Amino acid sequence: MTGSDVSLESALSAVSETTPLVNSVTNEVTVNDVANITLHWGGLPVMSDDEREVADMVAIADGCLLNMGTVSATGEETMLTAGEAANDTGVPLVVDPVGVGATPTRTRVADRLVTDLDVDVLNGNYGEISAIAGDDAEVRGVESVGEYGDIAVSSIVCARKTGAVVVASGETDIVATDEEAFEVHTGHPMMGNVVGTGCMQGVTLAVFAAAMDDPLQAALSATAAYGLAGELAADGSFGAYHGPASYKIAFLDAVAGLADAAPDVTGRIERIEV
Ligand SMILES: Nc1ncnc2c1ncn2[C@@H]1O[C@H](COP(=O)(O)OP(=O)(O)O)[C@@H](O)[C@H]1O
Ligand SMILES: Cc1ncsc1CCOP(=O)(O)O
Ligand SMILES: [Mg+2]
């Protein structure tokens, strides 16, 4: 596949025509943003994370996100229960290993998720993806710091290690499989100034993966669409902003209005030689 195979019009139509129910087991820092952006893409959010119910909810869902941003001991087990239910019922599974590499606990939990579960799409920032690949990484709390000149190689290594399509977020997002990598040239620096843009990207990937058959096509479409919404928010198309808080509102409005903005990603997705 080349980047020119990606059509946002058909991807967004697939979402609106299927209205995918996505269950997110996620952190309490950004859970409301994750729920709202699911709706704004055209999906239906549910945030079931109780051990007594989660397997039943995932079994009736069309997609599942596991985000380990504030994972507790019970939350760890519930994420495995949810992920196993997704695997058992063929529900596409997205994992966001928030903060992996920052502490031994986060590294252990992330390793357990990618080892014990069949993950369709794995999304993280440069530091998190590099940490899972086993490369040098500096993750301070949940933020990626430092330089990652070989992030495309790390992303392919991570894809080979996990069997997932990998999305490494940063100034330029990388989408990689075990064999190839793409650069997605969309987005805006303001997106890095809002807590939750990584978490919201994770559920965006889950919505598109739920609506589309091919996880690579879904990951490329979702990543490109997400960045375009960030650009439209920054250029005033959805209202002026005066700082990161008002930018976040404009960004959510851009997601909700993207389909009507006739988004075009021609030339924005580049298959790279690694
Ligand atoms: N400097 C930047 N330029 C363009 N897009 C960015 C920039 N920083 C972050 N983004 C975008 O913001 C989203 C979240 O990325 P990131 O901040 O790396 O995730 P996290 O919040 O998990 O650390 C991604 O879509 C990414 O492409
Ligand atoms: C700050 C923080 N702490 C635990 S989860 C979380 C939110 C992380 O959101 P994102 O990964 O989108 O920056
Ligand atoms: Mg993140």
TrEMBL record:
Report if keyword Ribonucleoprotein is assigned. Answer: no
Annotated residues for binding of ATP: 123, 169
Which processes are annotated in GO (biological process)? thiamine biosynthetic process; thiamine diphosphate biosynthetic process
Q: What is its EC number?
A: 2.7.1.50
Among the GO molecular function terms of this UniProt record, one is: ATP binding
- Record Pfam families: HK (PF02110)
At which positions is substrate bound? 47, 196
Question: What name goes with this protein?
Answer: Hydroxyethylthiazole kinase
Purpose: Catalyzes the phosphorylation of the hydroxyl group of 4-methyl-5-beta-hydroxyethylthiazole (THZ).
| Similarity-based family | Belongs to the Thz kinase family.
Which pathway does the protein contribute to? Cofactor biosynthesis; thiamine diphosphate biosynthesis; 4-methyl-5-(2-phosphoethyl)-thiazole from 5-(2-hydroxyethyl)-4-methylthiazole: step 1/1
Q: Which cofactor does it need?
A: Mg(2+)
